[in-house]
Automatic annotation (TrEMBL):
This is HIT domain-containing protein. The chain holds residues 338 to 553 of 553 of the full protein. Residues 31-139 form the HIT domain. It is found in: Nucleus.
Length: 216
DNA sequence: GTTCTAGAAC
DNA sequence: GTTCTAGAAC
């Protein structure tokens, strides 16, 4: 059936509809959680007037949660201004509390990092809290890997300091975004370069440098 | 963001 | 023959 539809589109020479992504329901899932947490399909771990804390639906590490801002005006980091620094401090506090809970359940876990994707795929400002093991079946491809281990991942502290100094976040150029997403696979601990995902996943499971990574 | 799968890479 | 990546999805 799918194959049939693909062939049909090709046969008629139909061009892709650029509005499809913008209106796609999946891109609004986090916004829906933020605006209507009581209707959320997944468990809400914590909620107040400013944020909602949930586990990532497709965790890319043993421990992976999202702190989602509830302000409808905050669709991404591009909407952040100096006035939002207190909100970021609150998001940090909520994330750190969750990290401590996870750590108490799993004392041997490696470091955690807090931060944002430069160009997120989903609407609504959300901060990742993710353990640096990246041991998860949902971590499947180069884009996944590079979105957490290259400059595509903006640590919370960097976002805070750029807001404080410039008053807004400079969004990276599309060409740079694509370059980072497509770049070679490299261990985030020892910088060893690898060709294939299975090779990388096997390596990071045993790399000593990964175990000693700095972080929370 | 994920799923699916054709065809490349092994 | 099997594993793996990468692009379409309306």
């Amino acid at each position: 059936e799918l194959q049939h539809r693909r062939s049909a589109a090709k046969a008629t020479g139909d061009e892709p509809d650029p509005r499809f992504k913008l209106s796609a329901p999946w891109a609004q899932a986090l916004r829906n959680v933020a605006l209507h947490p009581e209707k959320a399909q997944q468990d809400v771990l914590y909620k107040d007037d400013l944020v909602v804390l949930i586990r990532d639906a497709f965790p890319k590490a043993k421990h992976h949660a999202l702190v989602v801002a509830r302000d409808p005006m905050l669709r991404s980091i591009a909407d952040l201004r100096k006035e939002h620094l207190p909100l970021l401090a609150h998001m940090k506090e909520v994330a750190l509390r969750w990290v401590q809970e996870e750590r108490s359940k799993d004392p041997m876990t490696v470091a955690f990092k807090l931060g944002f994707h430069s160009v997120p795929s989903m609407a609504q400002l959300h901060m990742h809290a993710v353990s640096q093991d990246f041991n998860s079946p949902a971590l499947k491809n180069k884009k996944h890997w590079n979105s957490f281990t290259t400059r595509f991942f903006l640590p919370l502290h960097n976002v805070e300091s750029e807001l404080a100094s410039r008053g807004h976040i400079t969004i990276m150029a599309h060409a740079e975004q694509e370059q980072l997403e497509g770049q070679e696979l490299r261990c985030h601990g020892c910088s060893k370069s690898m060709t294939l995902m299975p090779e990388l996943k096997k390596h990071i499971a045993t790399c000593d440098a990964v175990k000693r990574l700095p972080g929370i």
